[in-house]
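## retry 2 of 3
previous attempt timed out at serialization; input unchanged, resubmitting
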Amino acid sequence: MAQSPPDVQSAPRENISASESVTVHQRAHLSIQTVIKQVETFPVLLQTELQNQLGILSGLSLKLNQGIFQIATFGFVSRGKSAVLNALFAEPIFPVGPLNGETQWPRSVRWSPEIAKGLSDLQIELIDTPGLDEIEGQGRAQMAQEIAQAADLILFIIAGPPTALELEALKALRQSGRPLLIVVNKADLYPDLDAARVYERLAVPLQQVLTPQDILLTSAAPAPVEIRVEWPDGRTTNDWETPPANIEPLRSALLQLIQREGRTLLVLNTLLQVQSVERDIAEHVQTYEAQSGKACIGQYARLKAALIAVCPLSFLDVTIGLLADLLLIGTLVKLYRLPTHRHQVNQLWGQILLSLASLVVVEMSTPTLSNWVSHISLGFLPWVGTGLLQAGVSLYGAQRVGKQTQAYLINGYTWSPLGASTLIQDILKQLQPQMVLYRLRQELSAQLE
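## retry succeeded, writing output
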């Protein structure tokens, strides 16, 4: 069970200092611009295939620069999602009614609470979504996942103790890797319900990333209560009165969370989406250059094998093998147009050394130059056999180096100095225990791997 963080009232402000936060923000923006510029170096046909990815990157850059912090609400029908948002706005912004499923499509509205001190650099956007259990559930499920992936914070609205279906929906939303708060609406109908009891109903994986402080009880539209009215003439009558909405716990928790780590949440979520786009771009490059890459590897591997097969000197074999592998790597880097970095280079040197070591072992197990000369009198059969063995090892080594180079270029694309994975890892190292993101660090680290 996860340890509960300190009370948010006493928690310090975001532990990433203002200067560091600005630096992270700037690096995230540079990361997006770097990817866009790299795509511009690709062949025109490949650039055309990547127009959708470029559009996503442009949108992420705009969101980051404008500081748009998005909060998405999810839940089943008749739980009061729209009512909760209307209570936060203190006016009927989102449609509500006696029929289930009043919200048919996602709708977003900017929220500018007057008490939001210290949030001048962020624009809060609240997103209302259709019920997760409405008709056309498969399409709605896909839509929900897309919205969850884009949101910086998720509010899951329930009405009373969570049902089995709601717990399954919570588990699915957790796959987005976004921070999540549980809002228990209509709490006025359950006077004995508290956050601790709701927390106990959650599965262990959810308990590890949530605490009772992340479960907020509200009454966005309390049910009317019967009251007794005493008249001046002594008569008494009964009437119905609607209590005011009890939304302050949620409002206060949201503003404190955004003030404490809203900027970090925004930057991290943006980078997670950039990372997804980078991986998609790398897969497109791999597919586009598949035939050219295969031909390049085959050409260099055959050339390396042929030269080593006819070369009688061991030290020249090793030199030829080294140069051939380096030329192959350089040609593939130029072909794929993807950046390399120190970690990739170190891994490639390991593959080159492994290829050379295999060749050296073959060289040491075959006759020396003097023995080779003595074998001339016996015919060319021993020499041909030795050459073929060396050629085979060289061919395999070059193919392995080529394939590993392709893999490192594709898989390492997000790990360049300004790559999304690199920046995400830097942010995760700076998280402190009182932050909501701190409880997600292991999950996010696993996504990087």
